[in-house]
Design goal:
The chain is α+β, with helices and mostly antiparallel strands. The chain has four domains: 60 residues, Arc Repressor Mutant, subunit A (Orthogonal Bundle), CATH 1.10.10.10; 44 residues, no CATH class; 98 residues, SH3 type barrels; 80 residues, Alpha-Beta Plaits. 39% of the residues lie in helices and 28% in strands. Strands 9-8-7-6-10 form a five-stranded antiparallel beta sheet, covered by helices on one side. Strands 12-13-11-14 form a four-stranded antiparallel beta sheet, with helices on one face. A three-stranded antiparallel beta sheet has the order 1-3-2. Helix 2 crosses helix 3.
């Protein structure tokens, strides 16, 4: 009985995204204490559930959370919907109609939230990604378009985990990476958040008044100071040219004799060394010399570790 209620509670949250504890208590005839205990068990199982109090409070599940792809195959979804549709036409049962609507809504969400502005397909996840990135993009896009506050779990590059309430103003796409420029309630200032580093996102139900922001006001160096950028000059073999073009853009590369030369300002962080190593021997660092030495040292560590 307990696990049946847990599954029903999860399905209800997936359908509604926010439910009050008393409604769950009355719907499944359990005590409020049991409701909170079951919610805690779902959270321990890794489901992003949050409990908040006040006017906009309730039990909520992250808008980016979906059932695992393997929970139902496409054929199983279709078979379940067809079977319930047939039953609902013969039996006037509210539970059957409710289950049917939940399954249909799940299919719609799986097929929908993969585009921005209705005409741009976004798949920024890794190979084998289960649309999690597209779900986060859909939540951020909705928040920007409708001036909705969102609650995010954010993991910084250094691994720091934080919970933020943000007011998303603009979506930014730079060097094949999506960001959201938003007012952060924690820091009380505008910040740029990398969407790929948002673990979960939940629409809070609150709205905000959007500030008119010009392009010049947005710090497109994403937190890097001018002294943290390096003037990079690369010599590129023809067979690696497409990969480098996708990284820094074709406008920063020009042919010189039998080689291609790239000149660009990039953040000088640990990721730069790894990026250059990923091109193998097809890319040579012309300058700066200090970066070339760091790449050589990193390559030597790889060799020594073999």
């Amino acid at each position: 009985m307990k696990y049946q209620i847990l599954v029903k509670m999860l399905m209800l949250l997936l359908s509604r995204r926010k439910v009050c504890a008393r409604e769950i208590s009355e719907r499944y005839e359990i005590s409020l204490r049991s409701v909170y205990r079951y919610i805690e068990e779902l959270a321990v199982a890794g489901i992003p559930i949050d409990v908040s109090r006040g006017r906009y409070g309730g039990i909520t599940i992250a808008d980016t959370y979906r059932l695992p792809v393997g929970y139902f195959t496409k054929d199983e979804y279709t078979a379940a919907v067809n079977a319930l549709s047939a039953m609902s036409s013969q039996v006037a049962d509210g539970a059957i109609l409710s289950a049917l609507e939940k399954l249909k809504s799940q299919i719609k969400r799986e097929n929908a939230n993969t585009s921005v502005s209705g005409s741009i397909i976004v798949d920024g996840g890794t190979w084998g990604d289960t649309k999690k990135f597209s779900d986060k993009m859909a939540v951020c896009e909705k928040a920007v378009n409708e001036s909705l506050c969102i609650d995010i779990d954010y993991i910084s590059r250094s691994g720091e985990h934080s919970r933020r309430i943000i007011d998303p103003h603009v979506l930014i796409f730079k060097q094949n990476v999506w960001y959201v420029y938003a007012f952060c309630h924690t820091k009380q200032e505008f910040r740029t958040f990398k969407i790929g580093r948002i673990k979960n996102a939940r629409i809070t139900g609150k709205t905000f008044i959007k500030k008119q922001i010009s392009r010049d006001e947005i710090p497109l160096n994403f937190g890097y100071r001018s002294d943290e950028l390096t003037e990079l000059v690369l010599e590129i073999e023809k067979d690696r040219l497409p990969d480098v073009e996708e990284w820094i853009g074709i406008d920063n590369i020009e042919p010189r004799g039998n080689k291609f030369i790239a000149e660009v300002s990039v953040p000088d962080d640990d990721g730069l060394v790894s990026k250059i190593l990923s091109f193998g021997g097809g890319v040579k660092i012309v300058s700066p010399a200090a970066l070339r030495e760091r790449v050589i040292a990193a390559a030597q560590k790889i060799i020594d570790g073999v």
